[in-house]
Amino acid sequence: MNKSARFLLHAFVLLAVTVAFAGERACEWTNVTRIVAVGDVHGDYGQLVTCLRNAGVITETNTWAGGKTHLVQTGDILDRGPSSKQAMDLLMALEPQAERAGGMVHPLLGNHEAMVLAGDYSYLDPHEADAYGGLDEFKKSMAAEGKYGQWIRGHQAIIRINDILFVHGGITGTQTNRSLAEINARAAAALGPRDVTKAGDSIEVLWCRDLALAPKADLESMLAPVFRKYDVRHVVIGHTVVKNPPRIKSRLQGAVILIDVGMSRTYRGGPAICLLIENGTFSAVSDEGKTEIETEAQGETFAQEGGFREKLTAIRTEARALEENAPVCPECGKPMKRRTAKAGSNAGHDFWGCTGYPACKGVRKIERPESTGTTGGENTANR
């Protein structure tokens, strides 16, 4: 067997093992009474430590103090700051300590982890590689057989704890044709040397910003299929920084909770704030103490076949679709609605446009079959 054949065989075996490992790992937990979630760290070990101490997860000597707490870090430990190695070392040390105490540590994949594993070092802090012994050693440590590369490749992209999804970027109704385990397996298979912009929808949950940026009316329709498919009431995301002021932000009364506050002092310089979920109560924890986040019963109403506005919108959309025999969008699968072109060569003509516009620009031509009906006994087909 020549060298290139051996390399391909090794890569295939590694891919198969990675996919199998990701598929077999648990990604759902229930009856968890205390959860702490930390957003994007971006190479700021000090801010991570502050978050964990404020939340009562670690001691002053950085050992586990959280008991049965589940700690979720929603990805993007790497890039932009100098101390990602220290941050990863801390989380790696806490994993077995938490498990022995009945808790768990859940480091998730972020888009920056995917970028680094793909060989994209565009956002590497000038001093970040120094902690590993230089850029070459940094690259070795992130390889499939490297200490940190192995650890990161074992991370999930999305998990469910109680009735809450945790994911770095987001998830919308167009991605709900797969189970959480399938989403994680596909993300694991997409990691490694490649152009991450060509990974298709395998790692879309790491990059998606729809839940953070979509208009409220669109957000409701995006969430309804997600909540029904995975039987959840909330989605907690990082990736999109909350600014002016930096804070943990709730959308739709807690249906979506954004926890990336830009805490890295070499990036955004935001405060060390994390999310605490204790016995169903959501709070932001910082140096200033604990502040409850208003979640009302929005999650509850979504669980009961969607929020009021979303439910009303869905009823109207379905009614119009039935009335017009509207097709589904070829791009995202949402119902389409009749629209009229306002410009160009087709101005004044009707077409099917996606109800997800402007996020989705899928269109279909309206076919106009010949009429075969009659009026007053007269054939009107050739009128």
Task: Compose a concise summary of this entry.
The chain starts with a helix and ends with a strand.
Give the helix/strand class. Answer: alpha/beta
Number of DSSP helical runs = 12
- Uncertain segments: 7-23, 297-312, 370-383
Query: What is the terminal-to-terminal distance?
Result: 75 Å
Overall pLDDT: 84
Question: How would you portray this structure in words?
Answer:
- With 383 residues, this protein is α/β, with parallel strands linked by helices.
- The chain folds into two domains: 27-303, Metallo-dependent phosphatases (Purple Acid Phosphatase, chain A, domain 2); 327-368, no CATH class.
- Helices cover 33% and strands 17% of the residues.
- It has helices at residues 3-24, 45-54, 84-100, 111-117, 135-142, 147-153, 180-190, 204-207, 210-213, 216-230, 298-303, 308-324, and strands at residues 28-29, 34-38, 70-73, 104-107, 158-161, 164-167, 234-237, 249-251, 256-258, 274-278, 281-286, 289-292, 336-340, 350-354, 363-365, 374-375, 378-379.
- A six-stranded mixed sheet has the order 1-5-6-7-9-8.
- Strand 8 (249-251) and strand 9 (256-258) form a beta hairpin.
- The radius of gyration is 24 Å and the shape is globular.
